[in-house]
């Protein structure tokens, strides 16, 4: 019997860390087996700034996902974001020794590897090399060169670049949490896999993922990624503004934003007031909802205008580059009331909220269909494409009251066995051995695996 391909995605965000375990069901939809969520400590604006706290948060999320699913996690695909991410356009070509030979996958790999050798600014490394249109012997707009003939194979590339130290810090956190890093994916790309349809990518669409620390942008046209950007503002700056503007503590500001916040100030009447308990015996504080929405509106307008500047930089105003499908909003910030209307008002583009339910199995938990989990769902989908066996079934120790799953085999000091039919506890808790990856799987691993291996070598050789 063929082993099921269990995939794991890890979304290391500024406000939360999500570990998600999933597999494809018989209808090709994503079935979520377990989710673990922990408060993200040690990450600011998408970048790790405290390794110890980040490791603890990752371990907490991993453990919760394992206990919920009954699978032991071996490796994960991780999302990468942060203000250090930038993208460039680049064209390159190779001359083939035998033009009479059919162009194959090895020629594309050769071209991609050539781009990976591009000289970057000091301290920067290439994360993704994404081919766009190909040219064969001067014939342009070739979408699929495999199977064609030609001597000169040329392509334009969308190259995503990030800070080497930030990427290595993420790798160090994963390794120190007791799991392996099987792949890196740019977070807006993962989110786009989860919430965009192929028709939208063909027509032209801008995906805006409003997270806690950053707002990520990915633009698609003709089914190809055209532009990516990471803006270093997110939901946290809105909370900070509420905290300062209303003179309340952060926890209360976050609750106010989620429960009563609106991005459209005209919505609230002047007499709508919410009362907040005072600190340590002080008088309660009364806050006008109209003022609250004015504070939120000012910051959301700033974030959307920065994103729209990037959309214009891509060339949206050029009729040939027009984004017909408009904007899709996702991430935790997309749950803010009336944000869709505000984005339409500022940009003049059709807008919808992106839910990751298109690829999820019908019986999925409603919470997982929230825009909050778009990146995590996309990372699991990415992990499935890698064809890796990222988690193995754990044996359960069954007691009459409940079933308990253990991450490590636990051996009790004193064991009294009264009946022969009982199995020794050590054996009950043994984890299934991990089989060597097949050659076919190795070939199918994505092209940035070499880069992941490079990070592993760096971490292993570090003092």
From TrEMBL:
Predominant location: membrane
Annotated compartments: Cell membrane
PANTHER family hit by this protein: CELL DIVISION PROTEIN FTSA, CELL DIVISION PROTEIN FTSA-RELATED
Role according to the record: Cell division protein that is involved in the assembly of the Z ring. May serve as a membrane anchor for the Z ring.
A GO BP entry: FtsZ-dependent cytokinesis
Domain SHS2: 7-195
Subunit structure: Self-interacts. Interacts with FtsZ.
Listed GO CC annotations: cell division site; cytoplasmic side of plasma membrane
Membrane spanning stretches: none
HAMAP family: FtsA (MF_02033)
InterPro entries tied to this protein: ATPase_NBD, Cell_div_FtsA, FtsA/MreB, SHS2_FtsA
Pfam family, one: FtsA
Similarity field: Belongs to the FtsA/MreB family.
Keyword Cytoplasm: no
Keywords: Cell cycle, Cell division, Cell membrane, Membrane
Membrane-related topology note: Peripheral membrane protein
Protein name: Cell division protein FtsA
